[in-house]
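User: Can you help me understand a structure? I only have the sequence.
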Amino acid sequence: MRTLVNKGIVMFAILGTVCGGAAWYIRVGAGQTASFRTAKVTRGDLLVSISATGTVEPEEVIDVGTQVLGRILTFGKDAGGTTVDYGSVVEEGTVLAHIDDSLYLAEVAQAEAQVQSAKAGLEHAEAELEQMKAKLYQADCDWQRAQKLGPSEALSQASYDAYKSAYEIANANVAMGEAAILQARAAIAQAEASLRRAQLNLGYCTIKSPVKGVIIDRRVNIGQTVVASLNAPSLILLAKDLTRMQVWVAVNEADIGKIHPGQPVTFTVDAFPDETFEGKVRKVRLNATMTQNVVTFTVEVITDNSSGKLLPYLTANVQFEISHRTNVFMVPNAALHWLPQNDRVAAEFRAALSSPMGGSGGPGNDRQLSSDPGAQTASESRSQGVLWVQQGDYVRPIKVRVGLSDGTMTEVEGERLTEGLVVVTGEQAVAKRRPQPGDSTETTNPFATKLPPRPGGGRGGPPQ
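Assistant: Let's start by predicting it. Here is the structure, written out as tokens:
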């Protein structure tokens, strides 16, 4: 029995809450009316653009590496006399770093010794050649005498053959001596080439700046060992000229057809949100990239950075200028898209409205005016539109010619348009004044306890 009583109390409380909510809706929710949201016709400049995001990049970046291996000993000095570091300004030929050159000094010394040895070998070959020429002269004289005597009683056949053979051997030795000289000279050239290579490697131990510029990144520290194998290790990243910068912008394939070299560009960076920078398109790269089936092209935008405010790798919010209108009338897009219900249109204009869809409302300014007193003929090059102007509790239409839109504001033309003209952009619900206790139309909760009337009017409380 107690359980049934508790359930009854709960049901009665729920029923009271529902009835109280219904009474509140009847008193407050149903007491709402509609009013118009409005905006003014403005005059100004309208820019139609494509928005994209890019990265600020130096116009020319040089990755300074090394062709030799070794340990970093010291860093050089920049133009101000301080140790080379991030942001240092360097001239062409400025020493950036020194690598331990002990091994390369030894290689140079060894190569120099080889050159000296080759030169000595050349002198030895030349001396031997002179000896061989002298022996050839002696053999030639003996052979000449032997030929005059010939094989006879005065000169045996064996002696005759020996003189002849000695002459031929001496002649061959001279040819061998001349070849030895050529070989010695080639050895000298080879040793000198080895010396030059060793000297170059020694020179590579001193890293110098190839151009005048600013150091963006220093990627090694003193004591660190760098190893040059197939790829030269990167030591320092150098920007040639930061007074000229680029913005690499990723543009969607749907918009790339509207981008062309020389096109004006404006952009902002988060570091200076209140400042707008200007540039122009230099080129559209053809190596498109695809990310999650979205194709984008990289567009290079060049800009002047004489102020030095733009830093490498800042994120840029870029606007590519497609078209620009100056000193034109503009209205919010909602003013052209809003369409009133028939009962909200002034009576004298209702007959002039027709709806191709047969409806009386909905989004889009689809209904056209079949006649509008005082309306002007629309331009053939622009589409027609309708603006709605409040007339008491109703609205009346104004025909306009619609031009460019930037997605928020739209260019409009029409003789009835004036700067500051208030046009309707929509409707909004506005609650009426909430009824106060004591009003003749007061609605109360039928389940609430009613107190007897007090003397003098009103309810509640014991008589005074």
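Now, to help you interpret it: The chain has a mean pLDDT of 81. The chain has five helices and 22 strands. Let me know which part you'd like to focus on.
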